[in-house]
Write a structure and sequence with these properties.
157 residues, alpha+beta, Alpha-D-Glucose-1,6-Bisphosphate, Chain A, domain 4, 7-stranded antiparallel sheet, 4 helices, 33% helix, 41% strand
Length: 157
């Protein structure tokens, strides 16, 4: 997948968070798909339906069910890059976005772990969708990641 080409067509969302836990502990938490349900806001009603491998690894397919603004949707992602304990990348194959490419990075920093998320996404319906829905979708993405950060802070201290 040519990331520079995707970047030209996408919006970018980035966030980072430091937690006072070891790199291995943090990565272990994020390598368990069930924990994604824990850190996703309840209003999304996120549920894992199926995982193609017993544990997440390169090439794993994950099927989810979510609700966006009350509308149920299916979402399938593939783990494009699996690099324990430093990160992984998931890409949407089926779901609400035209493109969703999410890079999760983990690094030791100041006696803990810095987690970074970088999401390249494109709203459906091209330019029209971006003009009509882009601001609302950005707001939703920000709210979901804010909830994640709050939950992670509560869980990891």
């Amino acid at each position: 997948m040519n990331i520079s080409l995707i970047e030209k067509k996408c919006r970018v969302f980035e966030t980072s968070q430091w937690v006072p836990r070891s790199l291995e502990e943090v990565f272990l938490f994020f390598s368990d798909a069930k924990n994604l349900e824990v850190i996703t806001p309840p209003w999304v009603q996120f549920r894992i339906l199926n995982m193609s491998t017993p544990q997440i690894e390169q090439g794993t397919l994950l099927d989810y069910r979510i609700k966006i603004k009350g509308v149920p949707m299916k979402w399938r992602t593939r783990i494009e890059n699996w690099n324990p304990p430093y990160g992984f990348v998931d890409t949407q194959l089926i779901g609400p976005y035209s493109i969703w490419h999410h890079t999760h990075s983990f690094a030791e920093k100041n006696g803990g772990t810095e987690m970074k998320d970088r999401v390249l996404y494109r709203v459906p319906l091209g330019r029209v969708g971006d003009l009509l829905l882009g601001w609302q979708i950005r707001k939703d993405v920000e709210a979901i990641f804010a909830y994640r950060q709050k939950t992670i802070k509560e869980m990891f201290g």
